[in-house]
C-alpha cells in the first residue's frame, strides 16, 4: 500500500506533457487528485484495490520514471498475457479441428448406414408380414393346446389314476375314484352345452369305470368289516382304519352297497357283542378282573346295575367304532357330536356315580361303569340320525332278550318292596340315558322301560299284599294310642323310597307324579287302616288322638323333600283337624263333669237382658260350686280323666 499512497500523495511531481502548457497540466492533475481524494468510495472499491495490488507486483519503487512508464508496462504486460493465451489455445484449436474431422467422418458413416437401413426395410416388409401371420397361427395353436389340456384335466384320467383304479384299494385308489366322480359330474354339465357328443363319450367312459371301481370298493369294505374288533390297537392299525373309513365314506354315493356293508358290520358286531356279554356274565374280564357279573345274581339290584353298566360301557365303545367307520352324516351331526361329547364328559360320570351311590350298590363292576362313562365322553353323538344309529340299534337289539331273561329270573323270588322301587328307578335312569345315545326309535331302551313297568307292577303288588296282611292280622290299638306297627314299618320303607326318589335324576315334575303314585299305594291304604282300627275299638276322643298320631307318622318321611310339599301340606291339615276335634271333645267333657254344660245351654237360650238370678241353676251358690269343681280339675295335681 506504500506505492498506492505514494502515487496519490505526490501529484505535483508529475512532469508536464510537452503537448500542453505546464500550468494547464498541473491544474488538471491537481483537480484529478483532489477529485479522487474526495471520492473515497472509488479508492476503496474492491476492483481498484485489486488493480493496485497487481501493479505492486512488478513496480517496486514509486519513482518518477516508473510512474511515466506505468502505462507502457501495463500494455506490455497485457500483450504478454494475450500471447500466452494464444499459445495455450493453439493446442485446443488443433484438437477441435481434429474433432471436426472425426464428426464429419461419422456423419458420412451414419448417412451410409441410414441409406442401407432404408434399403433393408423396403426389402423386409414381406418377411415382417409373413412373421405376423406365423405369430397369429402360433397364438391360435397355443390356445387350442391350452383348451386341449383343460379338457384333458377335466374329462380324462391321468396314467397314474388309471393304474390306481386298476390296482387294489388304497389311498391313491380313493383319490382316483373321487377324480372319476368329478369327471362324471363335468360330463353331465358338458351334455347341456353344444359338445354333446364329447359329453356322451366321456359319460360312458366314466360310468363304466365307476361301476368297476365301486364294485371293487364294496368287496374291499365287505371283507374288512367282518373281522372288526372294537378292542384293536388303534395306534398300530390307524392306516387301515383310516382307509376303511374313507372307503365307507366313498360308498355313500351307492346307498344300496353302503346298506349291505352296514348290515355286514351290524351282523358281525352283533355276534361279537352277545359273546362278550355272555363272557362278562360267566367269566369276567381278562385275568378275572372284573369278576363275573353272575357272582352277584343273588342281589338283584347289584346284578342288574352291573349288567346295565357293562352294556353302557359297550355302547360307548361300539358308538365310537361306528363313528370312526361311518362318521357323522352331515355337518350338523358333527357339531352335535362335539357338543354332546363336551356335555357327556362333565355330566355322565357324575350321573352314574350318583345313581350307584343312592341305590346302595357295592363297588364290583361300578368301576367298570365309571370307566365306561369316561370313554363315553369321546363317543356320544346326541340326536344323530342315519346309518351309524341304525347299525347301533341292530347291534344292541341282540341284548334285549338275554338281559330280559336274566332280569326276570332275578325277580324270583320277589325281592323286598324297597329293592323293587330302587330297581325300577335304576331301569328308568338307564333307559333315559341309552335313549339319548341310541335315538328315539330304539328297541333296547323300550325293553328297559318294559322291565321298569314289571318292577313297578311287582312293587305295587307287593305293597298291596302287605296291606292285606296288615288288615287280616286284626291288630288292635296300643294303650298309649301310638301308631300301629304296620304304619311304623311302612314309614321306614317309605323313607328309603323317598331318599331314592330324591337322589334320582328325574325332573321335579316327574318326581312329583311318582310321589303321587306312591301315596296312592302306601299312604291312602294306611290311612284307611288306621281309621278302621280307631272306629272299631276307641271312643271319639281317643280316636282323634290316635288318628292325629298316625297322620303325624305318615307325614314325617315327607317333611324333608320339596317335591312332596303338596302331600305334606294336606297331611298337616288333616292332623290339625284331628287336633281341633280333640280339643272340642275334651273341652266338652270337662265342662260336662263340672256341671257347666246345662248352665251354658240355658244361658244361651235366655234373652240378653234376663238377670242370672232368674235363670234356674244360675244362682250364686250353684255357680260357685261348679266353678270350684272346674278350677280343681284344671289346676289340680294329676291327669284329668275325660271318661
Secondary structure blueprint with pairings:
Blueprint: H1 2-9, H2 22-38, H3 40-43, H4 46-58, H5 64-68, H6 70-155, H7 159-166, H8 171-191, H9 196-225, H10 238-250, H11 255-282, H12 300-326, H13 331-358, H14 366-376, H15 387-396, H16 400-410, H17 417-438, H18 443-472, H19 485-503, H20 508-521, H21 523-537, H22 540-555, H23 565-593, H24 597-605, H25 620-635
Helix pairs in contact: 7-8, 8-9, 8-10, 9-11, 11-12, 11-15, 12-14, 12-15, 12-17, 13-14, 16-18, 17-18, 17-19, 21-22, 22-23
How would you characterize this protein structure?
It is a single chain. With 643 residues, the protein is mainly alpha-helical. It contains 25 helices and no strands. The N and C termini lie far apart (167 Å).
- Provide the residue-averaged pLDDT: 75
Tell me the distance between the termini.
Answer: 167 Å
Low-confidence stretches: 1-23, 329-385
What is the H/E string?
A: HHHHHHHHHHHHHHHHHHHHHHHHH
Question: Using DSSP, what is the number of strands?
Answer: 0
Secondary-structure class: mainly alpha
State the helicity in percent bands.
over 70%
Cα radius of gyration in angstroms? 63 Å
Oligomer: single chain
The general outline is elongated
Tally of helical runs: 25
Which percent range describes the beta-strand content?
under 5%
Largest sheet: none
Could you write a compact summary of the structure shown?
The chain has 643 residues and is mainly alpha-helical.
Which descriptors apply to this entry?
mainly alpha, 643 residues, 25 helices
